């Protein structure tokens, strides 16, 4: 038995009772929480992961504020290297339930949401599959419009796209790629990541490495940091390069339309002169969250041309 294991019975006992709480109390003021935290600080990642698994069931049975304190403890262990494992879905379920049922004490409720939200961010920002689970389980609706900052952070992370497949075809060059994008918020964000992933399409004007790193979430954007267009992005109707088919930079990446089962992004020469955007379009919500354009493979020139022919035929039929 590890030192952390030895603290779990007292913690479970504490969780069976409502917390003695005032707005000034520290999250881990009670001995059972403080001792578990101290033992967890020196435990191995494996021991911390095992503790999360052992305590997961308590997230649904403890009263809301106790469950929130437990969640914060779990989130702290995840920041130390624990794997969320079975605790993560239970924690997200409790966050949703607490957001939906505020209860009579507004201050206690707000702190509960804050602790649950912080723990959720520690887990969601490290795990693409967990973010997908949270979306399918209805967490975005539960945290929407909750006027507490941590609920807003969760909502913003879940508003991004993950594992989104795109068929990217260049209109001038006989090239294209199949890609998947993770933790991408808007089309400006996508444009910078795509330019960094395919420097050959930048015509000798590569993305500044610091800007590319900020777009990936490796560090926060700095004051005055910006990027600019090296090419123009159209949706599938832009095969004739009509400006009305532009993928507007402020739009969510999830809004890219589908054509015959594919989300198609067409890349062409720049339009609208020197188009720039502030690096504030690269949300920096947590140091563990990473945004990416993952290259799955090239599209052959023949496949690219077949797609462009289908798009031209579709566009002509609409005229």
Description:
There is one protein chain. The chain has 319 residues and is α+β, with helices and mostly antiparallel strands. The chain has 2 domains: 3-159, no CATH class; 164-318. The protein contains 13 helices and 8 strands. Strands 1, 2, 4, 5, 6 and 8 form a 6-stranded mixed β-sheet that branches. The chain has a two-stranded antiparallel ribbon with strand order 3-7. It starts with a helix and ends with a helix.
Number of helices: 13
| Radius of gyration based on Cα positions | 23 Å
Q: Report the uncertain regions.
A: none
| Helix-strand pattern | HHHHHHHHHHEEHHEEEEEEH
Distance between the termini: 74 Å
Question: Number of folding domains?
Answer: 2
How many strand segments? 8
Shape: elongated
Mean pLDDT across the residues is: 95
Largest sheet: number of strands, sense, barrel closure: 6 strands, mixed
Percentage of residues assigned to helices: 40-55%
Beta-strand content estimate: 5-15%
Q: Output the structural class.
A: alpha+beta
Can you tag this structure with a few keywords?
12% strand, elongated
